[in-house]
Amino acid sequence: MTIQIFGTPKSFDVKKAQRYFKERRIQVHFIDIRQKPLSKGELTSVMRAVGGAEALIDPDCKDAYALTLVQHTPASMLFDKLLENQQVLRLPIVRNGQRATVGYAPQTWSSWQ
Q1: Euclidean distance between CA atoms 100 and 58, whole angstroms
Q2: What is the pTM of this model?
């Protein structure tokens, strides 16, 4: 089992997720979304797994302008706005094949083993 963790290196929840998998000796591939943002296919896969675009948005995002822009975007254009403004995504995004979680979710991750 190989886990992908999308996030930023300084995020506290990303560090906790990395520690969770390291303690269980599960191979992790970390992707810094500031350097390599999610592709269209990856974002679509994560949205499908977590139940839609609204579940991906972090209401406590530090970029208030981008957050307001995304929150007031019509549903038909939301995917494109999320693709352009990935700083509003809730982190970490953890993928295991077709399954994915957003945020720190050790209960879900334990069921993947």
Answers
A1: 16
A2: 0.91
Instruction: List the one residue out of 101, 2, 91, 83 whose CA is nearest residue 43.
Output: 83
Query: What's residue 110's pLDDT?
Result: 92
Over residues 34-57, the pLDDT tens digits come to 999 999 999 999 999 999 999 999
Q: Residue 103's closest CA among 58, 37, 36? A: 58
Instruction: Say which CATH number the domain at 46 has.
Output: 3.40.30.10
The pLDDT tens digits of the residues spanning 80-109 come to 999 999 999 999 999 998 999 999 999 999
| Structural domain harbouring 78 | 2-111
Token pair in block for residue 98: 């077709």
Total count of domains within the chain: 1
